[in-house]
Design a protein that fits this description.
heterodimer; A: 250 residues; mainly alpha; MetI-like fold; B: 261 residues; 2 domains; 0% strand
C-alpha cells in the first residue's frame, strides 16, 4: 500500500504539470503511454529492441566464451595469471564507450562495431568474477584432490569449475547489465556521430526522435523500454542461473 | 600488499614487463603489416601523440574539464544520496515509500537519459554533470542503505540503553560503522559516473576527454584517438586508486571487510 503512494503522487504531479504547461509536446504520463502504444503497434519499438537484443546476445556470448575459459585458467594457474593479468588490468579501466570511436574506425557504424563494444564491456566483469571464483574454491577440496592424486587438469574440471560456478554466475549477471547499457550508449553515439546513417536499435531510435523530430513523449517511452528490458534481462538471467545451479539458491 | 618483500613480487614485475613488451611488439608488427596509420598507428606514433598533447597542455585541459565535471557530479550525488540513504536505512517507513521510485528509475541507465537531457540542457556543461550525477546517485544510495543495515544492532541498542539521543546515535554510531560500506559505494559511484561521462561528452559536450576522442576520430588522427583513450583509462584507474587510498586512510579497520572490488 505504502509502496504505491510516492510513485502515484509523482505521476499525478507530472501529469498536472505537463497539462498546465500548455505545450502539447511536453511529456506527461498519458501522452507517454500513448506514444508507447503507437511505437509498439507500428512495430518500430519491437524491431528496435530486437535489433539491440540480438547485438547484446552476440557480444555477450563472445565475451563469455573468451572470459570464462581465460578466467578459469588465470584463477587455476598462477603462471597464466601472472602473464595475462597486466593486460586485463591495463584495459579494464577503459570504458567500453571510449573505444567506440576506434570500433567505428575499424568496423564502420553497423552491427559489428556494436557487437565489439558489447563484448568488450561484458568481458571484464565476467573474467574478473571467474578468476575470483576459481581462487575462492575451498582449499580443503583442492588438498583432497591433490591427496587422491588427481592431475592439475582433472582438478580444474572436477573441483575448480563447479566451485567457481556461482561466482561466474554473478559475473554473467553484471556483464549482462553492463552489456545492455553499453549497447544503448553505442547506438546513441553511432546515431549522433554517423550523421543518422541507419544502423537501428533502441539507442539510435531515441536519438532520431531527439535529432529529427523532437518527440519527447517517444523519447521517454524509449527510456522506459530501456529500463524494462534491463530488468527483464536481469530477471531472466537470475532465473536461468537458479535453474542451472539449484544448490546456490541464496 | 605493500608489506610483501620485493623478492617475492619480482616474478610478477618481470612478467608484467614481459607481457607489456610482447603486447607492444605484437601491436607494432600488426601496424607494420596493415601499414595504414589511420587504421592502426604504430605504438611509437601514439607515444609521439601523447608527448605532443602533453607538451601543448591539451591533454591536461580536457582531463581537467572531465575530472572537474566528475567532482561536481560526485559532490551533488553524494550530498543527495548519503543523507537519503542514511534516512532510508534507519527508517523502514521512508524506505517503503521511496524505494519503489528508486527501483523504477534505477534500471534506466544514465546513458538512456542523454537524448532527453540534450533537449533539456543542450550541449554544454550541464548535460555531462546531470548524466554523471544520475549515474553516481544509485550506487551511492544503495551502498549507503546497505551499509546502515549492516551496522551491528547491538551498538545501537547499547547507545540507546545509555540514553544517547537519536541524532547522536546516527552521527556517532551509525555513520562510523557504515563508513567502510559508504566509501565502497562512493567508489562504485565514481566508476559508474566515469563510464557515463565518456558517453555524455562524446555526444553532448564541447570539451572533455570523451569529446576529444570523437573529435580526433573525425579528423582521422588515430594516434590522438588512442592517446585520449589511454587518458580515459589512466584517469579511471587513478581515481579508483585515490579513493582506495582515502578509504584505507580513513577506515583502516575496514580493509579486510571490503568484499567489492
Amino acid at each position: 500500500m505504502r509502496s504505491v503512494v510516492l510513485p502515484l503522487t509523482l505521476l499525478v504531479v507530472w501529469e498536472a504539470w505537463g497539462t498546465a504547461s500548455g505545450n502539447r509536446r511536453t511529456p506527461t504520463p498519458t501522452r507517454v503511454i500513448g506514444a508507447a502504444i503507437d511505437l509498439v503497434m507500428s512495430g518500430d519499438m519491437i524491431e528496435a529492441i530486437a535489433t539491440s537484443l540480438a547485438r547484446v546476445f552476440a557480444g555477450f556470448a563472445i565475451a563469455a566464451l573468451i572470459a570464462i575459459p581465460l578466467g578459469l585458467a588465470m584463477g587455476a594457474f598462477r603462471s597464466i595469471e601472472r602473464n595475462v593479468d597486466p593486460l586485463v588490468e591495463s584495459f579494464r579501466p577503459i570504458a567500453a564507450i571510449a573505444i567506440l570511436p576506434l570500433a567505428i574506425l575499424w568496423l564502420g557504424t553497423g552491427t559489428p562495431a556494436a557487437i565489439l563494444i558489447v563484448a568488450y564491456a561484458a568481458f571484464f566483469p565476467i573474467v574478473i568474477h571467474t578468476i575470483a571464483g576459481a581462487k575462492l574454491v575451498d582449499p580443503t577440496l583442492l588438498r583432497v584432490a591433490a591427496t587422491m592424486g588427481l592431475g592439475r587438469l582433472n582438478t580444474v574440471r572436477t573441483v575448480i569449475v563447479p566451485g567457481a560456478l556461482p561466482s561466474i554466475g554473478v559475473g554473467l549477471r553484471i556483464g549482462m547489465g553492463v552489456a545492455w547499457t553499453a549497447i544503448v550508449a553505442a547506438e546513441l553515439a553511432v546515431g549522433a556521430k554517423a550523421g543518422g546513417g541507419g544502423s537501428g536499435g533502441i539507442g539510435q531510435m531515441m536519438f532520431v526522435f531527439y535529432a529529427y523530430s523532437i518527440e519527447l513523449n517517444r523519447i521517454v517511452a524509449c527510456m522506459i523500454a530501456v529500463g524494462l528490458v534491463a530488468l527483464a534481462l536481469d530477471r531472466a538471467l537470475r532465473a536461468a542461473l537458479r535453474y542451472a545451479m539449484p544448490w546456490n539458491a541464496q | 600488499m605493500a608489506a610483501t618483500p620485493v623478492a617475492r613480487r619480482l616474478p610478477d614485475v618481470i612478467a608484467y614487463f614481459r607481457t607489456m613488451a610482447v603486447f607492444v611488439a605484437g601491436w607494432w608488427a600488426l601496424s607494420r603489416w596493415t601499414s595504414n596509420p589511420a587504421l592502426l598507428p604504430s605504438p611509437f606514433a601514439v607515444v609521439d601523440a601523447i608527448v605532443e598533447l602533453v607538451a601543448d597542455g591539451e591533454i591536461f585541459m580536457h582531463a581537467g574539464i572531465s575530472l572537474g565535471r566528475m567532482l561536481i557530479s560526485l559532490g551533488i550525488a553524494a550530498l543527495l544520496a548519503i543523507p537519503l540513504g542514511l534516512a532510508m536505512g534507519l527508517r523502514r517507513t521512508l524506505d517503503d515509500v521511496v524505494d519503489p521510485v528508486v527501483e523504477l528509475l534505477r534500471p534506466i541507465s544514465g546513458i538512456a537519459w542523454i537524448p532527453l537531457a540534450l533537449f533539456l540542457f543542450g550541449i554544454g556543461n550541464v548535460l555531462p554533470v546531470f548524466i554523471m550525477t544520475y549515474a553516481a546517485f544509485f550506487p551511492i544510495l544503495l551502498g549507503t542503505i546497505a551499509g546502515v543495515r549492516s551496522v551491528d544492532r547491538r551498538f545501537i541498542d547499547v547507545a540507546r540503553t545509555m540514553g544517547v539521543a537519536r541524532r547522536t546515535i546516527v552521527t556517532r554510531v551509525v555513520v562510523p560503522a557504515a563508513l567502510p560500506a559508504l566509501l565502497v559505494a562512493v567508489r562504485l559511484g565514481v566508476a559508474s559516473s566515469w563510464t557515463a561521462v565518456v558517453a555524455a561528452e562524446l555526444i553532448g559536450a564541447p570539451s572533455g576527454v570523451g569529446y576529444a576522442v570523437e573529435w580526433y576520430r573525425e579528423l582521422l588522427m588515430t594516434p590522438q584517438v588512442m592517446a585520449f583513450i589511454a587518458t580515459i583509462g589512466v584517469l579511471g584507474y587513478l581515481s579508483d586508486r585515490v579513493l582506495r587510498t582515502l578509504a584505507q586512510r580513513f577506515t583502516p579497520w575496514a580493509t579486510k571487510l571490503e568484499g567489492v572490488r
